[in-house]
Specification:
heterodimer, A: mainly alpha, 15 helices, B: mainly beta, 26-stranded antiparallel beta barrel, 3-stranded antiparallel sheet, 34 strands, 60% strand
Chain lengths: 318, 688
Amino acid sequence: MKDSRYLLAAALQGLVLAFGIALGAQAADAGSKDLVLRGDAVCTTCHDAELTPHVLEIGKTTMGTTADPRTPSCVSCHGESLKHREGDGMPDRTFGKNSQTPIEARNEACLTCHKGGERIHWTRSTHQNNQVACTSCHQVHTQHDKVRDRKTQTEVCFTCHKTQRAQMRRQSRHPIAEGKVVCSDCHNPHGTSGPNLLRRDSVNDTCYTCHMEKRGPFLHSHEPVQEDCTICHNPHGSSNPTLLKVRLPFLCQTCHEPSRHPGTMPDPTAVSGALPFNTGGPNFSTNKTVIMGRGCVQCHSNVHGSNTPNNDAAAFRH
Amino acid sequence: MKASRKDPFILTAVAAALLLAFGPAMAQDDVAQLTKPESTVNVGVGYVDKDNQRFGQYNGLTDKGAYGIIDFSLNKRDDSTGTWFTLQGRNLGFKDPELRLEQKRQGDWGYYIDYTRIPRYEPYTVNTGLQGLGTTSQTVVPITPGAGADYQLNTKRDRWTLGLEKAYRAWNVQVRYRNEEKDGSQLFSQGRFGNYPRFLAKPIDYTMQQIDVMGDYGMDRLQLRVGYYGSIFDNHNKMLMASPDTSPNYFGETSLPPNNQSHQFYVTGGYNFTADTRGDFKLSYGRATQNDSWAIAPPAGVTATSLDGRVDTTLMQAGVSGRATPKLTWRADLRYENRDDKTPQVVNAGLESYQPRSIERTTGKVVGHYSLPNGFRLTGDITYDQKKREIPEATVVDFRETVNEATYRVELRRAVSPTVTGAVSVAHSKRDGSDWLDNRLDDPTFNIIAPIYTADRDRNTVRLVVNWMPSDPMSVNFRADQSRDDYTGRNNETNGFDVGPREGKASNYSVDASYVFSESVTGTAWLSHGDTRMSEATCQERLGVAPNNGGTCQPGDNAWVGDVKNVADNFGLGLRAKATSRIDVGADVTYAKVRDEYGLSALNATAAGNLASQGPLPDITTKVTTLKLYGKYALDRMSGVRVDWIYDQYQTDDWTWSRWIYADGTTVLQDPDQKVNFVGVTYYYKFH
């Protein structure tokens, strides 16, 4: 008796399902049951609010703006998927983490429409060369695409860029965690004509977008400053003040001759020579306090360049 | 569960009836919920339990007390026209607010106005007698250390951006204008050889403007962008005047950054020659100028009223990528950039002349990818980079006109696999250049250091990436990076040692894992270890011995090696759980421990003696621990309450400030153990 009741229940469930599919198929045929995108009934007959609600969330995005004739239908990205519609296998193109669709084919689905503009140099991009799929970073079926939100973008980038994830947790850093400076402020992940996917044509031009007071040119210029900020600084974070790659004076000693005081060996015991106040005092270098405080730039305070018409300023002291 | 097993028929029948009766109506509601843009409003209050220097460095939560929490995101779309209206606000009760208003008809027109404030607090407390702090006229008043007034110097950037967009046929034009005001004070000081530096505060009052105009042309095969980018810097403070002026020990004036501007025109584009062959290019011409008048009178006889600085930059880049066979793809790229410094080399009565510095850079790259069986892909690339520098003379450091670097890289990657993907790559690069030019400051004495950015260098790097998905709920990622640089100096080794940069090493290892425990519980964990080292040698002359004592470090000089090491360990744990249908909870812990070592070693007996008397430089260790917990309770489908707790601890034994006192008695200190709690309670409401 029990078995027959289960069988009957199963049959009823089957009937309901079959009836639903039949209704859906009829609707699809009639072309009047699109839920979100133009012509989506062919998919949403099955992928409806009950079965796969997240699929419909594409309606919340710009892709779901059907008044814009450029917006896609399901098959624009996933293909006609005739076999899948007959219940056989996966759609022609899938984008999930277990997708077996070649990455070029996945990206082609996006680049068919999203070409030009920021993506002109996609074929030059390291991401393209390393076979990164668009959907490795972007979430399409959601209103909140993490990588396009300044607050959450780094979560996506740090999935691969682990060294930078560690660096941005050091003492000296840009306000990346606060979302005030984010990866895409400096880099265009879709490819650029510059080095390291930088938005501007050079490292310095990129840095000048926020630090244009360093651009000069100055009457007394410092050669590496004009050439490449990253000779001295690590923009992703450092344990040294002002994002310096190496603490002063060691950094300065990698270029400057040892004559006079640049070759001074730092001395941790030479700490109390600052008194008496403001009356000269012993030679700075002989006291070896050069590692204290701001190091060399305590005196060479205009290290990025000085425009003072004064020869003493050639050493960036004023 | 038992009931359902007892009465499957009744329950199924009821379910079927309900589904048939109400399914369509419910589905319609569901569909609306799922497809209409959602808006949210969060209102609440937060409390910081302690004054701090680090926790609030960039968010402004430096003071103990209560703060309002006001965030919103209003998103509306007129479905009949495709017009979006967006109004977003973040951190409106904090010191780093953000506000953005945007309206656009998709594919037609759009505009936005964006405002953000970026505060930055120096993570130190300055105790000083300095008067006039924040102004361009400051008076140094000596104090007994600790007896001055306390300040936490800070700057803030107020940034406004206006964007416009209009599409017309195949064209899309975008204009973006940004105005940024930066003001405040930064750590500064002044000193001269023979004197300890005295403390000053750099007054900041900048206006920075940027304008981007871009016209995009898009057809099936051809895409073009023509554009203009301009940036203008205005400093409202020209000079910092400090008193007393005791030149030449302490001088009265220090120049501040001069006004400057830059303008660039460019055209960039791409063309699909065939389905598999695409070319891309960029041409640009830019001019940067700086002709701000001298902030102080120049020496007598100098007729120029400004530097009249001008640097013209030309860029040409072109590349082609294609598919030679179904398995072989390739790319070739050439880039030429010419930074032409046209600033006149003004030679005036006794004033150091400007040293124009032009740089030509040519970079060529060829890449090939070959598909192997079983989802493997082999990549090889060769990059050649040449820099030609031109200056009238080497002044302070040595110089070479041409530097060449060739890099060879091979990579094997498995791109698609059910469980394991990854890549291993090996690269070698070699850098050398033209003959060295001696610097005039030390010629004919010290010309022995090859600057690190132009020195001969061999670089070897190895990278390994493995992604492993042993089961559906679990994924693991491992990544290892290693690199080693070997520098060659100027081979002026005459007394048993060669000075300058010697060696650099860097390694970073990380493991990430995520696990889906159930439909309602997920966890993540990551661990990383980094180790960066740099070794260099130099020497210190003996006082009283003339510098021209033979052209290099002498046996009696203090010759030593600095081995700088940075070791960082980080980990993070995250957990997200849906405890009940109404309650969501989450937790994140991150920990960073960074140790800096400054190893000193002697290259001769003099240095050995000095090291024995002074002792080693202590390490500096810094630890940052952050715990974030949240809980969300849904009052109904569209509203609820969220509680956040953040615990942040910053510990350091940085002795470089704690042992330092300025000549005027100023001290700059930080609390070596900072613990801060932040608690926030927020009511959220969502709507369509």
